[in-house]
Amino acid sequence: MDELQIRTAEMVDAGQAAIQQASQLAVTYSFSFIGAIILLVAGYIVSNVVERSIYAGLGRFRGFDETLRKFFSKVARYALLVLVGVTVLAQFGVQTASIIAALGAVGLAIGLALQGTLQNIAAGIMLLALRPFRVGEYIDTGNVAGTIQEIGLFATELKTYDGIYVLSPNSQLWNTPVKNFSRNTMRMVEFVVGIAYEDDIDLAQKTIRDLIASDERVLADPAPAVFVDSLADSSVNLKVRFWTATSNWWGSKLELTKATKLAIEAAGLTIPYPQSEVRYIPQGTALPQQTEREQS
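Above: the chain's sequence. Below: its structure in token form.
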């Protein structure tokens, strides 16, 4: 009985010690748990406030893209939430240094695996920030040409002149020269008109100048120009240059090219066809060079 009583007493003491230790842990971790809940709630609220503040703050910059506003505000929010999560784990005695190192390693691995995608994201941010082109503008990069439909973080959507849908990665658009045909408010129209060698060049120039000056789409400054560009095999080529609003470029080029042809003909001038001079020498007839040698 004495041995049983001793064992019972030992079990009671062990139970009391366990209860005491559990109560101490409960008190300790209860404060940590309450602190973690407070941190989570406060972090969630603050992250939402930061997201809205950054979104609204970027909106004060004139022309700042809507996609970038959402992107930067979301990045700030989730970065803050990650920081709150690491802080909460530290409340329970977790070594956050190893967690941060693990997150860094995971981030590096993801970055290497998604290297091409990250390049497109970086290029998309630069395109949205610097705006070499906007929605509705017509561009040509040499590899792709079309009207911009949408600029995303990963790729840009275009529509070609014949209505074909094109999706181009942003990295290709950022790393190549871009011709933007819609950005400037004015563009120069240029075309060539050929007249016969027998025609009056001054009359042709005056006819074309009068025609261009009468069109309201042609700008007076810079002044239009009509000049002899080259002496071709069958014609004297006159180059016609004038400036117009970008929105009128295509229509004015087509219509004034046609009108110039009609005006040249109405003035009695000629737009010649390619010509070749053929001389027929009957068989047995002495060539001029041969006749000169015989006389000498």
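The CA atoms of residues 43 and 127 lie 33 Å apart.
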